[in-house]
């Protein structure tokens, strides 16, 4: 029985972030708030949603989301309001439009450039004539023999 309770507590750990005084009375609005909170980044914890974070700023953002929902905003209006206030960084899944398109495309473009540079280098190496190492001259061979005798 203790193991079952322990497992349930581990699975419910992200739920601990939302305080009872934040929960809305309307279950439909609360569910919308939870879904929106899962897509918003905690600005303190970085890669944690505000729904999972215990930071004070995450709590303020959760309350802000719920206030906007109570005011009658749609989900898109709530997200737009928060993005207008905190910037697109607050989204856990940023859009691939505008200046973000450059960031989304940079990885594949750099991979293609690196593959092209590597291909040119390998083809250049395979076309290069094998270098012939010249042997030692008689003077160099004599000097080497002298050094090795010592």
UniProtKB/TrEMBL annotation:
Which keywords does this chain's UniProt record carry? Cytochrome c-type biogenesis, Heme, Iron, Membrane, Metal-binding, Signal, Transmembrane, Transmembrane helix
Look up the domain of life of the source: Bacteria
**Where in the numbering of this chain does the CcmH/CycL/Ccl2/NrfF N-terminal domain appear?**
6-148
One Gene Ontology BP term is: cytochrome complex assembly
Residue ranges crossing the lipid bilayer per the database entry: 101-122
Kindly name one Pfam family recorded for this protein: CcmH
Q: Name one GO molecular function term.
A: metal ion binding
* GO CC terms: plasma membrane
Query: Which InterPro entries does its entry note?
Result: C-type_cytochrome_biogenesis (IPR051263), CcmH/CycL/Ccl2/NrfF_N (IPR005616), CcmH/CycL/NrfF/Ccl2_sf (IPR038297)
The signal peptide annotation in the UniProt record is 1-17
| Stated role | Possible subunit of a heme lyase.
Would you identify the family this protein belongs to, as annotated?
A: Belongs to the CcmH/CycL/Ccl2/NrfF family.
Q: Please report the name of this protein according to its UniProt entry.
A: Cytochrome c-type biogenesis protein
Originating species: Sulfitobacter sabulilitoris
């Amino acid at each position: 029985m203790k193991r079952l309770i322990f497992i349930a507590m581990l699975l419910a750990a992200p739920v601990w972030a939302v305080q009872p005084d934040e929960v809305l009375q309307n279950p439909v609005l609360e569910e919308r708030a939870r879904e929106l909170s899962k897509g918003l980044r905690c600005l303190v914890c970085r890669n944690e949603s505000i729904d999972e974070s215990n930071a004070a700023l995450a709590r303020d953002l959760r309350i802000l989301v719920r206030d906007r929902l109570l005011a009658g905003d749609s989900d898109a209006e709530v997200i737009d309001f928060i993005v207008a206030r905190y910037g697109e960084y607050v989204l856990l899944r940023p859009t691939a439009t505008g200046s973000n398109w450059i960031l989304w495309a940079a990885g594949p473009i750099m991979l293609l450039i690196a593959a092209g540079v590597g291909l040119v280098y390998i083809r250049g190496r395979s076309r290069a004539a094998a270098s012939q190492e010249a042997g030692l001259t008689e003077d160099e061979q004599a000097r080497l023999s002298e050094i090795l005798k010592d």
